[in-house]
Specification:
8 helices, mainly alpha, elongated
Length: about 230
């Protein structure tokens, strides 16, 4: 295996590590999966942070750390896109800029979860406000995700090689993933129902779709690396 293939493989596996860290941090460690109901009274939200302080602080470390590890994975995606587009690659550069919007919010969500749990003697209203901001950052970045997936899908489907570098089904999957993530954009308008940040359309559907997309991207990228697709003309 070439050095280039080894590097690409390492970056792809770092994505898998990032996804695992994020999920472990938000669920069994911080106990924030699914998110606290936005309709929960502020006093109950504050009590939850106080009673789960250690877990939330530890989980927030994993969440914030995972956000950084996603970037090598996204760099590997961009490398595939650049290979497909060629020397003139505006969609790849647009992807590189857009993913910064989508994934840096995960880092700030981890920091704000930390701030919310750090001082248990804060007023309930302050803890509640910090919690709201953290969940908005965690769930709401639907537009960057939508654009990111559309760019990826368009590039993959634009590959006219007899054997595409990445399979065409992956391009279609990216387009559908982008569309299905959009309901998260509406969470600021609802506190209950399917469009709330713990609702079926705004949270559960995007969470399931993201999980499927993420794992299939890793699978397809590793398969392409194995057959040295980046070394082919």
């Amino acid at each position: 295996m070439t050095t280039k293939s080894t590097t690409m493989k390492l970056c792809t596996y770092m994505g898998a590590l990032a996804g695992t860290m994020m999920f472990v941090g938000i669920w069994p460690v911080a106990h924030m999966f699914p998110p606290l109901a936005p309709s929960m009274p502020v006093a109950e939200v504050a009590d939850y942070y106080r009673s789960h302080q250690t877990g939330i602080l530890a989980g927030a470390i994993l969440i914030a750390s995972s956000s950084v590890l996603f970037f090598p994975f996204l760099a590997a995606v961009a490398t595939f896109m650049k290979k497909i587009e060629g020397p003139v690659s505006p969609l790849t550069w647009a992807f590189v800029m857009v993913v910064a919007y989508g994934f840096v919010t995960l880092f700030f969500a981890g920091l704000i979860f930390t701030a919310a749990a750090y001082r248990s003697d804060r007023p309930d209203a302050v803890i509640g406000a910090l919690s709201d901001i953290a969940f908005l950052l965690f769930v709401m970045p639907a537009v960057p995700a939508f654009v990111q997936n559309l760019l990826t899908g368009f590039v993959i489907l634009g590959d006219r090689r007899p054997q595409p570098i990445l399979p065409r089904w992956l391009g279609y999957m990216n387009l559908w993933t982008g569309v299905l993530l959009l309901p998260g954009l509406a969470i600021g308008l609802f506190k209950t129902g399917p469009f709330a940040w713990n609702g079926v359309l705004a949270f559960w559907l995007p969470a399931v779709v993201f999980g499927i997309w993420f794992n299939l991207m890793i699978f397809a990228m590793l398969a392409a690396i194995k057959r040295d697709a980046l070394g082919a003309d």
